[in-house]
């Protein structure tokens, strides 16, 4: 995936650029010609400066996502039935998937290979992927996770967590798993991967689990990952979990689980960088998207942040949060741009979760163009989330939360506009709200403690600690807002500028 910016001058600007080279009234006399030359040179300099300061990358990049592997054609292709798989929903096909991967690995240095899964119900336990692979599911293909725990091997805990997320010790391996891979594509023609998580949810509720539940898809320490054009159902735990990965794209997927299913997060990038999540519909029992980076002392020690993350054109509902950061954020989270989001029938719209003992930081977060409908709390910060891996965490390891901007957000039938709770003695700073309108149904509309920031054009009126205006004195304190102010000023100056 590449993150890049494009600058295309507007039509009036292009006309003005042309006009500087065709200034009327220049005669051939030396004095008049030199004066014209000076005017033209000055105009060129000013126009170029205008382009630079009004370009999207002047402060907040006009970000876009491109995956180099998207639509890649592999020179070698096989079908899962060639390895003895039976798509009757009863026959266990774990060996067939494992054998297919073993065979296709021989093509890794020859352009890679594609494993085609045709229509059918393909029951399997956990299996590993390989590098330079496309796993392709046809329209009516369904990969089914086994309901027997012995078909899901137990593996070591993640080093940034120090133990299983739910229980001490190891964790069950995800249904589709891979580590130390390059160039992996999981895609298809809207085929389905169904974790049949109801068995795991029941064991969780009854507290009969031996280890932490498995994810549906987990890729570790991998680069160049694309997951697209698929339906994911009923994950036992978090659905899509890239961890310690770079260049990850999740595009055009549907993720579904019952709203009362426990901890069935949609997409959880964890200590990852250069991530793009776009054009997805997600309805689950926990966070639609949760950005993480390790847990307490283990995350601090591992020290790998989640950074450079784009989330856009996302729709979802949940009994938790639409977009969450944390609570496991001990390695740090920064450079998150989320826009064009719609969440409905949910508990929280946007939430940041942390706690004393987490350490780490959350900064440079920009959330814009969000629509919320029937949401209990629109914007929520939780500074005392608790929940630690063991007794060895450092209670004095305080998180740094700063430079978080919310812009252009509307909400209907919102119970609480903002429940924003920082940490005493460690105030969350430079929290900025701009052009936000909520229809709120109960009091208090905003509830803030240990929060410092700015607001403008917000209805209903924010709490006192956020009441100072952004413009003109504090736009540089608000992540992404200095460019907005500059561009607004440029637009108002353009008629004057080019009449010079």
Structure in a nutshell:
Helix content is 16%, strand content 41%. It has 500 residues and is an alpha/beta fold.
Mind explaining what this structure looks like?
With 500 residues, this protein is an alpha/beta fold. The protein has 2 domains: 2-60; 66-491, Pectate Lyase C-like, CATH 2.160.20. It has 6 helices and 31 strands. It has helices at 11-19, 30-54, 94-104, 198-206, 296-302, 481-497; strands at residues 2-3, 65-66, 76-79, 88-92, 113-117, 120-124, 127-128, 133-137, 141-145, 154-155, 171-172, 176-179, 182-188, 191-194, 217-220, 223-228, 230-233, 240-243, 246-251, 254-256, 273-284, 289-291, 306-318, 321-325, 333-353, 361-382, 400-414, 416-421, 428-440, 446-449, 451-459. The strands form 4 sheets. It has a 23-stranded parallel beta sheet that branches. A 4-stranded parallel beta sheet has the order 7-12-15-18. The longest helix is centred in the first third of the chain and has 25 residues, at 30-54. The protein is globular and about 65 Å long. Mean pLDDT is 88; it is low at 1-28, 33-62 and 492-500.
